[in-house]
Design goal:
Number of domains: 1
Keywords: ATP synthesis, Cell membrane, CF(0), Hydrogen ion transport, Hydrolase, Ion transport, Membrane, Transmembrane, Transmembrane helix, Transport
Largest sheet: none
Number of strands: 0
Family: Belongs to the ATPase B chain family.
GO molecular function, one term: proton-transporting ATP synthase activity, rotational mechanism
Mean pLDDT: 82
Helix content: over 70%
Membrane topology: Single-pass membrane protein
Protein name: ATP synthase subunit b
Low-confidence stretches: none
Radius of gyration: 65 Å
Distance between the termini: 178 Å
């Protein structure tokens, strides 16, 4: 009986093995079809998303670096521009100051020239007035001394000689 049991056990074992093998193959096909492919697709999509995110982050970091360099260049340019503006303002102020000083000198010279001209005119007016007064006084004196009226040419000669004496005495002072 033992042999029968052994044979039955062997045949039962072979049947069980065959059943387990068929069940495993069916289960593997079902897992492949319903689980393995969706999981593989999901993992592939996740891998692509992570790769895309890393590429996007790298691109953003590169863009941020470029923007940083642009801002630094703009800051440097603005500093140079500010220095240029200050330099131009200083030059403009200096030019304006020089223009004002030159204008003041010009006006002072003009005032001085007008004052000299006015003084010269006043001197000439005074000399003419003195000449007229001296001429009249000379005529009056000459009339009293001589006792008669002088002729026009005598008066002119007397006046001219007196003016020459006045000019000579005035120039020596």
């Amino acid at each position: 009986m033992q042999t029968k049991l052994l044979l039955a056990a062997e045949s039962s074992s072979l049947g069980d093995t065959l059943f387990v093998l068929i069940a495993f193959i069916l289960l593997a096909l079902l897992v492949k079809h319903y689980a393995w492919e969706p999981i593989t697709n999901m993992m592939e999509k996740r891998n692509q998303k992570i790769t895309g995110d890393l590429d996007y982050a790298d691109q953003e970091r590169h863009d941020a670096e470029a923007l940083k360099q642009q801002r630094e260049a703009a800051l440097k340019d603005s500093k140079v521009e500010a220095v240029q503006i200050v330099t131009d303002a200083k030059k403009s102020g200096e030019n304006q100051r020089q223009s004002i000083v030159d204008q003041a000198h010009s006006e002072a010279q003009e005032i001085q020239s007008r004052a000299q001209a006015n003084a010269q005119q006043a001197k000439e007016d005074a000399m003419k007035s003195v000449q007229n007064d001296v001429a009249q006084l000379s005529v009056d004196i000459a009339t009293k001394i001589i006792g008669r009226e002088l002729s026009v040419s005598d008066q002119a000669n007397l006046i001219d000689s007196y003016i020459k004496e006045l000019n000579a005495s005035h120039e020596t002072k």
